[in-house]
Write a structure and sequence with these properties.
By secondary structure, the protein is an alpha+beta fold. Helices cover about 45% and strands about 30% of the residues. It is built from three helices and five strands; from the N terminus they run ααβββββα. The strands form two sheets. Strands 1-2-5 form a three-stranded antiparallel β-sheet. Strands 3-4 form a two-stranded antiparallel sheet. This is HU family DNA-binding protein.
């Protein structure tokens, strides 16, 4: 697993920044993706992929402990669709 701090450390060393500066940049990127998602907008990062908000409808499920049928409320989820370059890098 890679953490935000590890990503920031790599950016800091590659771009002659302090770790704090790099972490601020990384957190800002993630924050912008979250803000776009809250507004219902898609975030597209060329050669990487797209973050898109999807609606999931209300559905029935089962309580695993009791087996009782329950309603699961409709919700929004953030989906990531990798771009072609990322797919190729993973499978090439």
């Amino acid at each position: 697993m890679t953490t935000t701090n590890e990503i920031a450390d790599k950016i800091a060393s590659e771009h002659n920044l302090t770790k704090a500066q790099a972490k601020t940049i990384v957190e800002s990127v993630f924050s912008q993706i979250v803000e776009a998602a809250k507004a219902g907008a898609e975030t597209s990062i060329p050669s990487f992929g797209k973050f898109k908000v999807k609606d999931t409808p209300e559905r029935e499920g089962r309580n695993p402990a009791t087996g009782a049928t329950i309603k699961i409320a409709a919700a929004k989820k953030l989906a990531f669709m990798p771009g072609k370059a990322l797919k190729d890098a993973l499978n090439g």
